[in-house]
Amino acid sequence: MKDKDSGTPRVFLVRHGQTEWSQNGRYTGKTELDLTAEGRQQVLGSAQVIVGTGRLIDPAKLACVFISPRQRAQQTFHLLFGEGMSQAPADKVHVTTTSDLAEWDYGAYEGLTTHEIHALRREHGLDSDRQWDIWEDGCEDGESAEAVTARLDTLIGKIHDLQGPNMHGEQACDVILISHGHLLRGFIKRWLRYPLDMPLSLMLEPGGIGVLSYQHHNIQEPALMVGMAFPLKSHS
After folding, report:
1. Does pLDDT of 210 surpass 60?
2. Closest residue by Cα to residue 44 from 32, 54, 31, 35
3. CA–CA separation, 182 vs 227, rounded Å?
4. Rounded to 10 degrees, what is the CA torsion of 32, 37, 41, 47?
5. What's 30's DSSP letter?
6. Measured between alpha carbons, how far is residue 62 from residues 24, 94, 159, 176 in Å?
7. What is the mean pLDDT of the chain?
8. Residue 6's pLDDT is what?
9. What does the angle CA 184 – CA 112 – CA 182 come to, to the nearest 5 degrees?
10. Percent of the chain at pLDDT above 70?
11. Strand, coil or helix: what is 113?
């Protein structure tokens, strides 16, 4: 017997693999960095386990793949569906690069660690009463939380338009987002209709996969899947 939520569309969140700056804890927005060797292995490891026919991310069930324009995200896409894995999305899958998934523009904080950002803000006379919180304060010379919210909501609207008519699996309409640490955590908050400054602690490892969906096959009940079973791949 199928699970009661079988057929409900899913949105898979894929964080790019490790880069030199992510390894060192440096905020990486617009700077173009390649994946490290470890970062490539992180993505390939995820692909081997969950991407493929009959697996969690089944290309036959996909409708769209949205990718950040940053090269580390583009490399992650090609590793997930290529590199000898023979799992490239079918021709019917729409693959698009969108600035809606670019990492938060860190502005003056680009390339800095959290400790260095705190020190810089103190030099600028900021944060006398509390510590900096990107989800509320944004970034000097970069993006505000309101600007990030606007582009996340734009993408969520597009996904709802696609998945809304197919809440019982009428057509294949799973979606993959390949993006970055802050941006994807912000996406989860907005998917759940929380403001970005909602104190919801979330973690997503480099090369890691998260899953969003809906309760009760209802577009008005967006949900975070906190646990799921992995389908057994058929060898027939």
Report:
1. yes
2. 35
3. 22
4. 30
5. S
6. 34, 9, 12, 8
7. 92
8. 67
9. 5
10. 91
11. coil
Residue by residue, DSSP assigns 89-116 as PPTTSEEEE-GGGSPP--GGGTT--HHH
Contact 161, 50 (CB under 8 A): no
Task: Give the integer Cα–Cα distance in Å for 195 and 41.
Answer: 34
The owner of tokens 């058929």 is 234
Tell me if 26 sits within 8 A of 111, measured CB to CB. Answer: yes
Query: If you search the block for the tokens 């509320």, which residue do you land on?
Result: 136
Nearest to 106 by CA among 97, 95, 94, 114: 114
Query: Band of the pLDDT at 87, cuts 50, 70, 90?
Result: low
The answer to whether the beta carbons of residues 70 and 102 sit under 8 Å apart is: yes
Question: What confidence score (pLDDT) does residue 93 get?
Answer: 86
Task: Write the pLDDT tens digit of every residue in 150-169.
Answer: 999 999 999 999 999 999 98
The position carrying tokens 């390894």 is: 23
Compute the radius of gyration of the chain from its Cα atoms: 18
Which are the catalytic amino acids? 16, 103
HEC string of 117-138? HHHHHHHCCCCCCCCCCHHHHC
Tokens of 118: 């705190």
Q: Which pair of structure tokens corresponds to residue 184?
A: 């994807």
* Residues paired with residue 222 on neighbouring β-strands, in sequence order: 214
The closest alpha carbon to 95, from 67, 73, 75, 56, belongs to: 67
Q: At what angle do helices 145-163 and 181-191 cross, to 10 degrees?
A: 60
pTM higher than 0.90: yes
Q: Give the tokens for residue 39.
A: 């970062």
Least confident of 16-30, 38-52, 85-99, 112-126: 85-99
Residue recorded with tokens 């009940």: 221
